[in-house]
Amino acid sequence: MDIEAAIDLVSAWLDAVQVESASHRVDEPQARYRARDARGEPGANSTWPLAIHEAAHAVVATRGGLRVSYARLRADGSGAVNYEATPTSVNEMVSRVMADLAGVFAELLRDPHPLRRQQLATSCDVLVARLNADLCRGLVPTWELSHRCFAVLGACAVASSWQDITRVSRALDTSGSLSSTRIAALCWAGPRCAL
Ligand SMILES: [Zn+2]
Questions:
Q1: Does some domain include residue 195?
Q2: Structural domain of 49
Q3: Residue 136 resides in a domain
Q4: Ligand 1 centre from 55 Cα, in Å?
Q5: Residue 81 Cα, ligand 1 centroid: separation in angstroms?
Q6: Fewer CB within 10 Å, N or C, the chain?
Q7: How far does Cα 188 stand from its chain's mean position?
Q8: Cα separation of 45 and 120, whole Å?
Q9: Which among 35, 47, 26, 55 has a CA at the least distance from the CA of 132?
Q10: What is the pLDDT of residue 27?
């Protein structure tokens, strides 16, 4: 899928989020997975697209200056990247929305199966990105932060970091889990890609 088509899709998905129920639908699974990660269950080895999806979150969050604690692939086929932004910082919150959308864009740019595309449309990533986009708009109501604007930023962050994302993805696929230090080292380990 080309980048313009991916931006159009994600903009429409963000528009369609039912905000009233989004936080409820996000909180329960995130709390469950955070508890499992805190128990230190071993990371799993996996294959594309999970590793590339999680690597995109990790790279865009790291390069956006967010506080990343780990990336991991779980034995049940799910994955996670834990990153935080200061809720009162516009700069960090915009970076956060870009990181929230990065996994979705990484998959869309590689032409996922139509069924996977349907899953992505209503995924926790899109719900969380919409909630955080609303927070950004609340911080700076005079800025015209449209969903298309966030989608463009997220898509460009992924496309321009593709070499780093591939590098982190390979390491994640091999080890199942990466620390923030390892992710940062992999992000700046190789030559920059030509845009
Ligand atoms: Zn994700």
A1: no
A2: 3-187
A3: yes
A4: 9
A5: 8
A6: C
A7: 19
A8: 22
A9: 26
A10: 73
Going from the Cα of 16 to the center of ligand 1, the distance in angstroms, rounded, reads: 18
Using alpha carbons, list the distances in angstroms from residue 74 to 28, 46, 50, 52. 18, 8, 10, 14
Find the 130 Cα to ligand 1 centroid distance in Å: 13
Average per-residue pLDDT for the chain: 89
Give domain status of residue 29, yes or no: yes
The string of pLDDT tens digits covering residues 29-88 is 667 766 766 766 655 555 568 999 999 999 999 999 999 999 999 888 888 999 999 999
Residue 194 in domain: no
How far does residue 140's CA lie from ligand 1's centre (Å)?
Answer: 26
Indicate the residue type of 99: A
pLDDT band at 192 (very low <50, low <70, confident <90, very high): low
Q: Calculate how far, in angstroms, residue 94's C-alpha sits from the geometric centre of ligand 1.
A: 17
* Residues with CB in 5 Å of ion ligand 1: 103, 125
Distance 99 CA to ligand 1 centre (A): 9
Number of domains in the chain: 1
